Amino acid sequence: MTESQILKNKDTEVLDSLSTALDFLKDIMTDDVAENIASSLAGIMTIGKELSDDKINSEIISILRKSNEISDILSFYSELREEGILEILKGFMYGAKSLKDMLNDEAIEKLGNYISITLESLPKIDQFLSMTFDEVPMAFMKALNSEKLKEEIKGKERVTNKDLIAMFNDPATKKGLLIFLLAMREMGKSI
Questions:
Q1: Source organism's superkingdom (predicted)?
Q2: What is the rounded CA–CA span in Å between residue 153 and residue 110?
């Protein structure tokens, strides 16, 4: 066989292989496959067109350069979700949004009024608290709430005049009675 015949045979083999490949492609090429290929090619072309924009290209490069930080953020997010903290944060955000929604002009005005009244009352409240937590009133309140007093009251079913007179011999009773009488005198002067 001559060289030209060998080339013709090889060309024929190549053409036969190409024909077989084209027949195979024609057999597998359905409308769905053609649509999928066309859609994929259109998507690739759209991405390619967008990537040709210098601004988008530089932004993508910037994102790729920050891949370690993005990975850390995603790991942190996953950890928050796994620990249940993410749900708690969502609850707080929902509460804050609800509070923001409730705070209309009327609610803010009422809240301002309450704060104003509270601030105006602070000196009187401070005066009341300082009197209440003074030594004598505190001793009186502690005495009324003492366990010993509660036990003695429960233990006495019937109190006689003799019991009352016997209490006047107790020094603590005398001191308490004196304080009570002095307080009554001061109250009488102020009325």
A1: Archaea
A2: 48
Say how far apart CA 133 and CA 131 lie, in whole Å: 6
Residue type, 52: S
CA distances from 36 to 33, 74, 125 (A): 5, 33, 78
Residue 132's contacts (CB-CB under 8 Å, 6 or more residues apart) are: 138
What is the spatial distance between Cα 40 and Cα 34, in angstroms, rounded to a whole number?
10
Whole-angstrom distance, CA of residue 21 vs CA of residue 23: 5
Contact between residue 93 and residue 101 where contact means Cβ atoms under 8 Å apart: no
Both tokens assigned to 104: 């209309």
Tokens 């090889």 belong to residue? 10
pTM over 0.70: no
Phi, psi of 128 (to 5 degrees): -60, -45
Regions in the chain scoring below 70 on pLDDT? 1-11
Rounded Cα–Cα distance for residues 15 and 13 (Å)? 5
Contacting residues for 50 by C-beta, under 8 A, at least 6 apart:
56
Q: Which tokens belong to 9?
A: 């045979």
Domain residues of the chain, as ranges? 1-65, 67-102, 104-132, 134-191
